[in-house]
Amino acid sequence: MRVIAGKARSLPLKTIEGIDTRPTTDRIKETIFNILQIDIAGCKFLDLFSGSGSIGIEALSRGASKAYFVESNRKAVACIRENLEFTKLIDSASIMECDSMTAINKLAGQELFDIVYMDPPYNLDHEKNVLQALQNSNIIDNYTLIVIEASLHTDFSYLDELGYELVKEKKYKTNKHIFAHKK
């Protein structure tokens, strides 16, 4: 796994051992950032369920002004910190060692994010819970783009009911990305 483009281009990133995280492949990461490319420069990026931090690091490398990394696994947090230091992007990063719901509450009134990216464990409905928490939070607005990585079978038919609009859906062999924003 590596940084695809930007200031830290081609630098390798570490991941934690085991099955607790599923690092996004370089190919899928490149696809995501090709879609996001015009929105990245100068944005404030929230990376929920960060894992190794590769998505937020890619955003910083490509010109995001600030990225928040939210991860509850202590080993993954250490990996994120190590990757940020190695890529020399640590000064534009904030690492929060907590679950996503706690982070949303802690960030209230402090930041307004341009892009929220989440890659929660599959098939546990974390996506819906986070979207419900974000619904009334002041860390997003109608212009915030929310990107969700999920299994192919994850149902997002509730988006409209929660006040979100589906902007785009990109499917791969085993997973998909949903792009949405508040109505």
Topology:
Elements: H1 26-40, E1 44-48, H2 54-61, E2 66-71, H3 74-87, E3 93-97, H4 100-107, E4 115-118, H5 126-135, E5 145-151, E6 164-171, E7 175-182
Helix pairs in contact: 4-5
Keywords for this structure?
183 residues, DNA_methylase_N6_adenine_CS, Rossmann fold, alpha/beta
Please tell me about this protein's structure.
Keywords: Methyltransferase, Transferase. This is 16S rRNA (Guanine966-N2)-methyltransferase. The protein has 183 residues and is an alpha/beta fold. It has one domain: Vaccinia Virus protein VP39 (Rossmann fold, 3-Layer(aba) Sandwich). The chain contains 5 helices and 7 strands; from the N terminus they run H-E-H-E-H-E-H-E-H-E-E-E. It has a 7-stranded mixed beta sheet with strand order 3-2-1-4-5-7-6, covered by helices on one side. Strand 6 (164-171) and strand 7 form a beta hairpin. Helix 4 runs parallel beside helix 5 (126-135). The chain is globular. The relative contact order is 0.15. The mean pLDDT is 93.
Termini separation (Å)? Answer: 35 Å
The CATH superfamily appears as: Vaccinia Virus protein VP39
Q: Strand-residue fraction?
A: 15-25%
Q: Estimate nothing, just give the exact number of structural domains.
A: 1
CATH fold call = Rossmann fold
How many individual β-strands? 7
Give the overall shape, derived from the CA principal axes: globular
Taking all residues together, what is the mean pLDDT?
93
Which consecutive residue ranges, at least 5 long each, have pLDDT under 50? Answer: none
Widest β-sheet, arrangement of strands: 3-2-1-4-5-7-6
Pfam family, one: Cons_hypoth95
Protein name: 16S rRNA (Guanine966-N2)-methyltransferase
Organism: [Clostridium] fimetarium
Keywords: Methyltransferase, Transferase
